[in-house]
Write a structure and sequence with these properties.
heterodimer; A: TIM Barrel; two-stranded antiparallel ribbon; B: 3-stranded parallel β-sheet; 5 strands
């Protein structure tokens, strides 16, 4: 039974003092929501995200086919790249269609605004506040979808400059979305191009969660070459686990231009900790980053070395994913 | 190293139509594929024993069994899964084998198929 604030107050007034504490939450959980370190669905079932990143903003024509393959490879979630204007804007109707494709493939839709990538360092990057404005501008496509959609406010919202501003900016963006009536689970990315080199997200996650009136924030780190050692990966993940905070690895790969990444440890540690992960990315990377493509040319018949590893290797998506209970 | 998983299609086929099947049994095969993935082991799915189709109806049923398997695992890469269509040369009807191969490859064009008769 959904207890409204009004009904809860009535119940509280009807009970004699001392009849037992009636816990009246300041909010009612809506759709996918956080409980401690866990991500739960509306029915209370635990949900561990497993899937990939889909570059919809740049290759919208490939999304429907790609999500079909991803479902066939047993993904339960897809992180969808969108743009609010840094690239061609994805309109409310386009996003509604993306959500429909997710639902027809029984995937949870983690929608992310890529415009903020490298803010403060990358030319043309948008602020988190601007990203919040984008979500509000397309809220007609989002409201009512809380069982199926998670909003990732802004991708890698700071480069390596002024990263201490991340905490206040993130809280402000969350507040802006809540005030606009968006009650979804929210994912916030770490600064330092998502890698949280300086631990700003790690050290301030609890205060960000507390500042959200719905306490429904999931933290996302992108594990690239800062995460070359198993101990670094375990240490980072265990900090969130020990603090009872929800975490996902929203992006990771096998290596990048700066060094190797311990993808085996990422897969193993995240699985054992009960945290979600989403590899970067299905296909469409530029030629210098083509080693990050999981399939060649958006063709599921052509899995790459990275694709075979992340989907079909030990602790891979195929063997660790469970379909969302809502489906 | 490869894992050969002998499966008896009589366990999941629901008479009279071989295209119907017992989902609970097929889920066990799904789990075997998943378990092999988790361990980095390619899996050879092999009908064992191979039924001997004596007439057109049973021949069609044999083709349908493999067509169903091909469809179920159409997204699983060739590096992970291959099929052994017949077992221990019990199937000698070339025409049925050709039909089966064609049906499987129509669904998964690159699926590795063991040489009929050599899968034992």
């Amino acid at each position: 039974m959904k207890i409204t604030a009004k009904l809860a107050l009535t119940l509280a007034a009807a009970l004699p003092l001392g009849a037992g504490a009636l816990a009246v939450p300041a909010y009612a959980a809506t759709g996918i929501h956080v409980s401690g370190q866990a991500v739960l669905e509306s029915n209370g079932a635990s949900f561990m995200m497993r899937g990939t990143n889909q570059p919809h903003a740049w290759f919208p024509g490939n999304t429907a086919t790609a999500l079909g393959w991803q479902k066939g490879w047993r993904a339960n979630t897809v992180r969808v790249v969108l743009s609010g204007g840094r690239w061609t804007k994805n309109s409310a109707s386009d996003v509604a269609n993306v959500i429909a494709i997710c639902k027809s493939n029984k995937l949870i839709c983690l929608l992310e605004d890529h415009d903020t990538t490298g803010y403060g360092e990358a030319s043309g990057a948008y602020s988190l506040s601007s990203a919040a404005d984008y979500w509000i501008s397309i809220k007609s496509a989002l409201q009512g979808q809380e069982n199926y959609v998670i909003i990732n406010i802004g991708n890698e919202p700071y480069g390596n400059s002024n990263v201490s501003n991340w905490t206040a900016d993130t809280k402000a963006a969350v507040s802006k979305l809540r005030n606009a009536g968006l009650d979804h689970a929210l994912v916030v990315d770490a600064p330092n191009w998502g890698q949280d080199n300086n631990g700003v997200m790690k050290n301030n996650a609890a205060s960000v969660q507390s500042a959200d009136p719905r306490h429904n924030v999931i933290f996302s780190v992108h594990m690239y070459s800062q995460y070359g050692s198993s101990s670094t990966i375990s240490s980072y993940v265990n900090t969130f686990k020990n603090n009872n905070l929800p975490l996902i690895i929203g992006e990771f790969g096998p290596y990048d231009a700066y060094g190797d990444i311990n993808e085996d440890a990422i897969l193993s540690v995240a699985h054992n900790a009960g945290y979600g992960l989403l590899g970067w990315s299905w296909s469409g990377n530029s030629s210098d980053l083509s080693y990050l493509d999981q399939v060649a040319g958006f063709d599921g018949n052509k899995p790459t070395t990275w694709g075979n590893r992340v989907w079909f290797g030990a602790d891979g998506i195929y063997s660790t994913s469970s379909e969302a209970a809502i489906y | 190293m490869i894992v050969r998983l002998p499966v008896d299609c009589r366990l999941w086929s629901v008479e009279p139509d071989a295209r119907d099947s017992d989902e609970e049994i097929l889920t066990r095969i799904d789990n075997a594929v998943i378990a092999c993935c988790q361990r980095g082991l390619p899996l050879l799915l092999s009908l064992h024993p191979t039924p001997v189709p004596a007439d057109r109806r049973t021949q069609d049923a044999f083709v349908a069994v493999w067509e169903r398997i091909a469809l179920r695992y159409r997204y699983v890469p060739n590096t992970v899964l291959s099929f052994g269509l017949v077992d221990e040369m019990r199937m000698t009807q070339d025409q049925v084998i050709r039909r089966t191969v064609a049906a499987v490859l129509a669904v998964t064009p690159d699926r590795p198929l063991t040489d009929p008769g050599s899968d034992s």
